[in-house]
Amino acid sequence: MSDAAQPTAAEVRAAADAVKAALDHHLEAVERRSGDDDPAVYDAFNALAAAAEVYDELLYDRYDEVTPFEIPGVDDSMPPYTGPEEPKALSVLIRRDYAVVEPPRLLAQAQRIADADPGDRGTGTGAVAGASVHAALGVLFGEYEPDEIASRHQEFGLEEGDSTLWVSAAEELSEAGEWLSAPFDEADPQLVVCRFDVSSVFDEEDLDEELDDLAADSS
After folding, report:
1. Which of 94, 96, 95 is nearest to 158 (CA)?
2. DSSP readout, 97-108?
3. How do residues 175-184 score in pLDDT, each as one tens digit?
4. Which terminus of the chain, N or C, has less C-beta within 10 A?
């Protein structure tokens, strides 16, 4: 960046003052919050994140320095929680992606399951279990719980992709059979109490940070 395009020292100082003001405002919002999910705290957090990002960019452009902290961006966060203060029920929503990388292994495992089930004898199920990936997956997921498949996926010729788990709050437990026809239509992010994500992209980000650290140490 040329000298003409660089921010001035006064602009950097003004951005630093904006961060200080946003930090004070965030603390005040936290001290006055009405509950664990007060929207005022959420708004103050976002304002602090935005001010810190501007300061960090100007500081780098002007002095080639960075701040020692990182505040997650607004786009990476969940929307503010708007569910009940004291949930009486909850829903656990899980998505796990898999790639079928070894179809012969999957077919063989499904065939073994079908052959070991006396109820399949004479029904033809055992004969088709190892004949198609579609049938084999039906046998596999009908036999094992999702958590067991997750822990043994390599045995079944599967490769893990991304996964996520959402714990969603509710006022009361749904009536039996009420949502079975459309189980994921009411997956409202604003009712999510907590979520847990697993992805190889996180490992890649960690590796990039380690490589950057090594490069900085060797320079």
Report:
1. 96
2. EEEE--HHHHHH
3. 999 999 998 8
4. C
